[in-house]
Amino acid sequence: MLTVDFDRLGLRPGERILDMGAGAGRHAFEAYRRGGDVIAFDMDAEELERVRELFVAMKEAGEAPAGAEADVKEGNALSLPFADGEFDRIVAAEVLEHIHEDVQAIRELVRVLRPGGTLAISVPRWLPEVINWKLSPDYHHAEGGHIRIYTDHELIDKVTKAGRFNDGTPGDAMIFEGKDYAHGLHAPYWWIKCAVGVENDEHPAVKAYHKLLVWEIMKQPTALKLAGKVLDPVIGKSMVLYFRKPESAAGAAGGAA
Questions:
Q1: Which of 23, 97, 142, 188 is surrounded by the fewest CB atoms within 10 Å?
Q2: Residue 84 Cα distances to 107, 109, 112, 158, angstroms
């Protein structure tokens, strides 16, 4: 299930796109289906190998258009092994909440994005995440877990300023272009898990709600689609922010919600 809206991101066939923190590859696969030149980037070599295998399977099954390319790259988000301005589009979905040096990671994303390119960043939304933290310390104390809760203002500020030089002089200040919310049906699932124990997957309420989410993902029934549209702006678990790198090196930050 996608978090980022690829139509809003603006990906076109043949464009080079980075999925930073690709994980299991859900956004990388969608970019490949749309004809992008895709790099799935992550620090988990085993996960990337599975993503690579699925790229091959997609190509063999004809799920990606002719000319589309897809590969994987292992590395660290704080030092991306790519040239300045190498990518037309970048997705960083549910990654920054795990990274201590988030500003450095954001600067790297801005660096490898071409002028005029677009960036989509998703993180857990403030209110659903606060509820999770209050219900269960185990939710965020786990190794590799979430280390911060973002407000939209904080993350917008960090990204729009990320292209400026360290001395404060103008650089490629990113332009904020708007936000969405996603996965409204998923927030209650995590509230239940945090209430009964995040590792307690056998609890009847957890099992029942999990079946509902599997039904949503696999069958996409109309009723749940409509429920999601109603719940996303209210309790959507994920917040998605969209940015554009200005064509000029001294573009000014701004934008609309």
A1: 142
A2: 11, 10, 4, 19
Q: Which domain holds residue 24?
A: 6-124+144-183+237-244
Decide if 115 contacts 245 (C-beta within 8 A). Answer: yes
CA angle 30, 33, 34 (to 5 degrees): 90
Sequence length of the chain is: 257
Q: What is the largest CA-CA distance in the chain?
A: 56
Residue 171's pLDDT is 54
Task: Work out the number of other CB atoms within 10 angstroms of the CB of residue 7.
Answer: 8
* Beta-bridge partners for 102: none
SS3 assignment, position 217: helix
Kindly report, residue by residue over 183-235, the tens digit of the pLDDT: 999 999 999 999 999 999 999 999 999 999 999 989 999 999 999 999 999 99
Q: Is residue 253 part of a domain?
A: no
Q: Is residue 215 part of a domain?
A: yes
Q: Is residue 255 part of a domain?
A: no
Whether pTM exceeds 0.85: yes
Regarding beta strands 175-182 and 238-244, do their DSSP bridges make them parallel or antiparallel, or are they unpaired? antiparallel
Q: ∠107-112-113 over CA atoms, to 5°?
A: 95
CA distances from 234 to 137, 220, 223 (A): 24, 20, 17
